[in-house]
Amino acid sequence: MALAKKPIGVFDSGIGGRTVFREIRNLLPSEDLYYLGDTARVPYGTKSPEVIRRYAEINVRFLVGQGAKVVVVACNTASATALDHVRAVFPDVPIIGVVEPVVGYLSTRPEAENIGLIGTPTTIGSGVYQSALESLGRTIRAKACPLFVPFVEEGIVSHPLVDQVIDYYLAEFREVAIDTLVLGCTHYPLLRPALEAYFRNKVHIVDSAAPTAGALRDLLVRFGLSSDPSGKGEERFFVTDAAESFRRIGGRFLGRPLSAVEHI
Ligand code: DGL
User: Fold this and answer.
1) Distances (CA, A) of 264 to 36, 139, 240, 242
2) For residue 123, which atom of ligand 1 is closest to its CA?
3) Which of 93, 124, 174, 200 has the CA that lies 20 to 30 A from 35?
């Protein structure tokens, strides 16, 4: 099969990467998309970089085995800790993460001067976003928000409890009047309405999805890997555990019900 006809592989630790998947689907309707949620090993955000590198390698190997022409690491934690590793292990496969596209997007927004960054403990601990944004001359404050992921997974995204947790973590960002908030975790876009309300719509909120989908489109063009634009892309969903809950919860991330989910 010609390389351009092959699918794009996308993986996340679980369901969060579906916020990125959704944007890729909107931007690239003719591409076949294979999504792998590593639901047996989620969460990544509290694990060490060494362990995440091992998991990421397994995930890329699976997607490449399914014929993926490119791979998107749709997880901030894996992008921050394992991108160089998987690129080194699979030198023939173009692989993009979510951190570089977000930093690239912010580089085009000089008005983003006073940036707040939120993510999992491992993403924040890696310092990858911070050093990239500081090298652009921006002021950056970073905060790990480990309670956000379980709230989102429970579907609790609009509730006084959520507002309390947001205040617990982010009061300091409000005090220093950040102008931009980077959602450095693929779960957090579901908290966007609550975060916008908390910052009284005065803060520009940036998440991984649109910059990553745009970077993927550019990459396909650069490598001559775009599929025939007249076709309609197919989708396959794979999980490493509990396909039923992935189907149920994952629909929220995708904004529509899911059909088949394959347990591998
Ligand atoms: N998807 C992960 C991320 O973007 C968050 C969930 C997890 O901890 O695995 O960092």
Assistant:
1) 9, 43, 5, 10
2) 10
3) 124
